[in-house]
Amino acid sequence: MARESVPWITLCCVFLTALSASVALIPPISRLAARVDLMDRPDSRKVHVAETPRLGGIAIFLSFVLALLLFADFDRLILGFLAGAVVMFVVGLLDDVVALTAAQKFAGQTVAAAAAVIGGGIHLDGLGNVFGQGDVALGTFAIPFTIFCVVGVSNAINLMDGLDGLAGGGVAIASGAFVVLGYLSGNHPLMLLGCALLGGVLGFLKYNMHPARIFMGDGGSLFLGYCMGIFSVILVEYGETRISGFTPLTVLALPVVDTIYVMVRRFREGKKLFLPDKSHLHHRLMGVGLGHKTTVAVLYAASYALAAFSVVFYRLPDYGQLGALVGLLVLFLILYRILACGMGSEPAGPNQLPDVTAGTLILPVAYGLILLFQSKRSRKIILTTLFALLALSVTSLI
Q1: Hey, is 322 helix, strand or coil?
Q2: Residues 211 and 176 in one domain
Q3: Of 50, 124, 212, 319, which has the most beta carbons under 10 Å away?
Q4: What separation in angstroms does the CA of 182 have from each of 93, 105, 195, 232, 292?
C-alpha cells in the first residue's frame, strides 16, 4: 500500500521527542509510585532484592503517544492502532494496580487487538507461499487469526519481563529491526511508529538496567507486546515491497518460542498456563550459573542475531524463511533441554542429548536443499520431512 514518504528529519524528531519525554517522566513517576505504594516487592519467584516502583510503562506509553501527536498524520491505521494501544495499556495498568484475573486480562487484550484489527483494518490477508505451492489465503479467518497472533505476542513480551532491562532491550532491538525493514520495504507508517517506540524504550532503559530503579509493570510490557504484534502485521501488509510473514516472526522468535515451550510444558505437567514460575529461558541461564547482567547480555546477543538475520535475508522466499525458523526452533529446544539438565530438574542419560542432537542434524541440510531445489514437488517433500523431524524432536525433548 503506497503512502506518503516520511522525511528523515521527521523521524529524528519523533525519536528524540519520545526519548526526551521518557527520560524526563521517569523520576516523577517513580516518586508517584512510592507515594501510592505501587511497588514491586521481592518474592520467591522474582530475582530483585529491593522494593522497586512498577509504573515505568506510563512513561513509555506517554512519550510514545506524545511523539505521534506532534508528528503523525492520523489516518485510519494510526487511529486504530492508538485505540488498541490505549486499551492494552489500561488493561496492564489496572493489573498493576488491582491485580486482574487471567480471564479479565485476556478479555481486555482481545478487545485491544480487535480495536486495531477491525477499527484500523490492520490484519493479515494470508500466510504467504509457505510450501512453495502458492500463497495461502486466510479468507474469513484473517481477522480472528490476526487477533490471536497479536494477543499471543503481547503475552510473550509480558512473560519476557523477568530481568532488569530484558524486555525493554529486546523490544528496542526488535523496534530497530522493524525500522530498518520498514525502510527497505518502503513502509513509512512502520518507520514512524518504530522510531517513536524506540525512543520511548531507550529513555526507560536508562533507569531499568541492572540494578533497576524502576520496572515497566504490566502496563508497559503489555503495551510493548501489543506494539510488536501490530508492527509485525504492518510490516507484512503495508509496505511497497512485499515482506514475508516469517520475517517479523524471526525478529520475535526468542520470546515467542520461549513462551510456547513453557506453555506446553505447563500444560503437560497439569499446571496453570499463566501461573508465574521460573521456567523461562532467562531463569534457566541464571540457574546454570550466569549472572544477571551476563544472562541479559546473552539474550541481547541472541535477539540481535535474529534481528540481523531477518534484515539480511528478508528477501528469502517464505518457504526458505520457514525452514530457517524450524531449524532455530529445534536448536532452541536442544539448548533448553541442556539447561534443564544442567539445573538438575531432569535426568540426563549418557546417550540422551547426543541421540536427539544427531536426529536433528539433518535440519540444516534440509533447509539448504529447500533453497537449492526449484521443483515445487521437491520442496513440498523436503518440508514435509523437515516438519516430521521437528515433531520427533519436540516429542523427545518436551
Answers
A1: helix
A2: yes
A3: 319
A4: 30, 31, 11, 10, 33
CA–CA dist 59, 68 (Å, integer): 14
User: Residues 193, 99, 254, 87: what is their CA dihedral angle, to the nearest 10 degrees?
Assistant: -20
Does 38 lie in the same domain as 145?
yes
Are 131 and 262 within one domain? yes
Mark whether 156 and 29 lie in a shared domain. yes
Distant-in-sequence, close-in-space partners of 210: CB < 8 Å, separation ≥ 6 = 163, 164, 165, 292, 293, 296
Helix (H, G, I), strand (E, B) or coil at 136: strand
Read off the pLDDT of each residue in 252-277 and give the average, rounded to a whole number: 82
Q: What is the mean pLDDT of the chain?
A: 84
- Count CB neighbours of 256 within 10 A: 23
User: What is the domain count for the chain?
Assistant: 2
Boundary residue ending a domain (313, 342, 377): 313
pLDDT, greater one: 367 or 126: 126
Residue of 260, 262, 283 whose CA lies nearest to 271:
262
Its domain, for residue 350, covers 316-398
Cell of 357: 542432537
Q: Of the candidates 270, 292, 313, which is a domain's last residue? A: 313
Segment 165-173 mean pLDDT: 95
